[in-house]
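Handout for the seminar on molecular recognition.
Each group receives one record of this type.
Step one: identify the two inputs.
Step two: read the structure output and locate the region that could contact magnesium ion.
Step three: write two sentences on what you found, then compare them with the reference statements printed after the record.
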Amino acid sequence: MTADVPAEIAAGLRRLGLAGPGPVRGEPLTGGVSSDVWRVDLPDGPVCAKRALPRLKVEGDWRAPTERSGWEARWLALAADLLPGAACRPLGYDADGHVLVLEWLDPSVHRVWKERLAAGDVDVPVAAEVGRRLAALHSGAARGPLAGWEPARELFATLRIDPYLTATARAHPRLAPRFEALAEGLATAAITVVHGDVSPKNILLGPDGPVLLDAECASPGDPAFDLAFCANHLLLKAVWRPAGRDRYIEAARALAATYLDGADWEPANGLEVRAARLLPALALARVDGLSPVEYLDEDARRTVRHAAADLVERPPDGFAALTARWLDLTSGEPA
Ligand SMILES: Nc1ncnc2c1ncn2[C@@H]1O[C@H](COP(=O)(O)OP(=O)(O)O)[C@@H](O)[C@H]1O
Ligand SMILES: [Mg+2]
């Protein structure tokens, strides 16, 4: 069912010269929490239009400056240059209305990775390909100028460091020094441009492989963040769906392995250690921070809390140790 697109999106499309003065029709898309996202039917075919909302559609009053869509546009343009096909290609950005126009990724041939994972379809080569592409993007961005990205740090602090690390430190005062050290590292790192939201819900699996979306948290920073953030989703899913836990863990290991293999901007072992230390903090954040995971019940949250806190306290030195201890600590055997 098509409808008139919101006036702000139509105005943005007109300012970009993509739509004429007449009615602009399309269909709202679901799945996002921070934006109005529409399929817009233009004379030449559909495009996707995304307008950042000042207040996120989540419980609680989580506000985020709409300028984030400008950084998203910039990151997607960078990614399109560095590795065509690895991320959704931007067609235009209207800064006045914060309207980002994207190539249309037809949902009949693009599946949200999170939905595949939730259905128990854990395709290990897909995880490996995500790792390969992410490393190529980090590698390319690490070679380019970072200075122009500096102003994006503030948003990364608001959308990532505060809700994930600072809030979780408050809930776990004993672990607070660990969280503070991790937060400090992320806030000051300038190794590459990170995507900031490499979650299976922001990855579409298309005919040419995984396509990244939703780069609103892009910032200069530590590439270990993106690796840890994405692998964390797989480790949480191993607790959520115990029947497939070995496959989720295998996927996390494959993701890390291809990623680290492609990391040519710094020694891989230091990078791996940083990611393996950060991941448990992010896991604890998904139960006790400001962005709690929606699919775990109280029992599963307790399991994650116990495992993640142990790993924050006694940090693993790599993904082999991290994933082995995660399996052990979440196995349901009495501790
Ligand atoms: N270019 C696109 N083509 C088709 N669908 C898209 C496109 N971009 C986003 N979507 C759909 O909209 C959903 C939300 O997009 P996303 O960029 O993640 O927004 P949010 O910031 O609100 O999470 C995606 O999960 C996907 O289903
Ligand atoms: Mg999203």
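Reference statements: The pocket of magnesium ion (ligand 2) is lined by residues 32, 201-202, 214 (CB under 6 Å). Residues 3-103 form a domain with the Phosphorylase Kinase; domain 1 fold (CATH 3.30.200.20).
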